[in-house]
Structure formats: structure tokens, C-alpha cells
Amino acid sequence: MKNGTHKIKAPKKVKPIDNSHKSSEKENNSIFWDKVHEQERQYGSVDTPEYCWGPDVGAEVIK
Description:
- It contains one helix and no strands.
- It is mostly helical.
């Protein structure tokens, strides 16, 4: 290291990208959402409506 500079070594060989896992990702995604929907039927939805705080939310003044 000279004068605060860093040398970065680039890899000698670049490995090709393996896209063979793409189909299994779709399957895993489908399995995940199937499980989500199954649990939603069993336990109910976790969606809750947003609470209405009213028109004066944040109107208070702290002195």
C-alpha cells in the first residue's frame, strides 16, 4: 500500500452463471404460497385495516 491506495486483485477466472436452478425456484415459490394460503384458511388472514387516527393526528404541540 502506497500513499493510502489499495490494490484490488481481480479473479483470474470468471465462473459462468448457473441458471439451472430457475425452475426449482418457481416450484419453491409455489410451495411457499400454497403453505401461506393453507395457513390463512386455518388461522385467518393477518391483514388488518389501517387504524383511523382522526383529523387531529400530530396536531399536539410540545413545549
